[in-house]
Amino acid sequence: MRRRELTAAGVAWDAWRAVRGGPPAIAARRAARLDAVVRHARRASPFYAEHYRALPDGPVDLVRLPPVRKPGLMARFDDWVTDPAVTRTGVEAFVGDPGRVGEDFLGRYVVFTTSGSTAEPALLVQDPRAVAVMTGLTYARSAGVLPPRLLLRVLARGARQAAVFAPGGHYLSATMFERRLRARPVRRRWARYFSVLDPLPQLVAQLDEFQPVLLGTYASALGVLADEQEAGRLHISPLVISSGGEALTPTVRRRAERVFGAVVVDTYNASEATPLSLPCRRGRMHVNADWFVVEPVDAEGAPVPDGQRSETVLVTNLANHVQPIIRYELGDSVVVGAEPCPCGSPLPTITAEGRTDEILRIPGADDAEVALLPMAVATVVEETPGVRGYQVVQTAPATLALRLDVDPGARRDEVGQRARDRLDEYLRTQGAAPGVAIELADDPPRPHPRSGKLRHVLRSLPPSPLG
């Protein structure tokens, strides 16, 4: 009998029923879906057939499944996926064309690339089942986040939506945003994508003209936009702001709420598993535990008790059957809540460290300070042909050091010069002073010595002589 295709509406209805059924209903769904994805992976993925060959058949014991990591999976990409029509060569050619952002690969699959915060970027293929889960869960479990009165105000003002993220790549935010616009072009009247790479005055002018009611952006960009609003250069009145992609500190959150007079919603997701969590009205993030398994572990891979911070986290995506993600090391440090959320949801809560990249501040051409957003800097460098890994370090007020790993066979000096030229051009568009130097460092990118997580953009300035 042919398996019935999941729909977003069906996922939403089941998600509502799962929460109503409490922890037993969530656990039962999780167990059945885990069994299905593991059985499918063993049968249809040559990588997993080999990876699990020593395991007995029968019910799945999650903790007996050996974890997987991105480098190993990417090295075996064609064996990892379960559809032989999906090849690394084909996917790389697809994502190499920015004009195809939002288009479905082979007319059936949604493809994301990651920014490579722990190693090389990943190529992630989502089947229709996974896309239905993304959409259905978001609708079902985001509907109650906004109070009805606020939701009516959003609708009354036309629900104009601005997304301020990195452009040009097949990233999660850009791909899903453009995919919705392609499906219904009329949405372009009230939904617009803005580039975080644009010079800040240009971005401010664009947002002023558009006057968004809903604003989504990175935490670092939100902090800079709050600076512009408070200084009187930006004049927008969003009702709801969604922050994602980076850690949102309580200080930035409170300041954005005060400056914009908006409700600020934080998100924690991963391109490998989305929506891994969704916020509730109390501002806490709840794991969608009926579709995703989250395992906080220590440096040796042992489970970390609820309420304690993990060294890393293993994630299992129960929705995606074309590219199984099973006990995949995500690299984030997380804390799963030890107590039930006051909102009443039976879904576990989670807090995450997320990205820890920093805003760089350099001298401007007009003697003013120029703020460089970490996601913008990262996008400029990682999109350079030949760059495999990178780190941009501010080593002096007017000096940036560029640490690079390059693709096999590529000449480091040539790749380094291209990256320096692209970064120098970006600095000029941002209004940087001519004397800002970009140096190609001899050493490669340095991961954090304890967590192994790579910070792409950071400051390492000598102490001020004034203390």
TrEMBL record:
PANTHER family: CAPSULAR POLYSACCHARIDE BIOSYNTHESIS PROTEIN (PTHR36932). This is Phenylacetate-coenzyme A ligase PaaK-like adenylate-forming protein. Signal peptide: none annotated. The keyword Ligase applies. Residues 447-458 have a biased composition (Basic residues). Residues 434-467 are annotated as: Disordered. Keywords: Ligase. The keyword Ligase applies. It comes from Actinomycetospora cinnamomea. One of its GO terms (molecular function) is ligase activity.
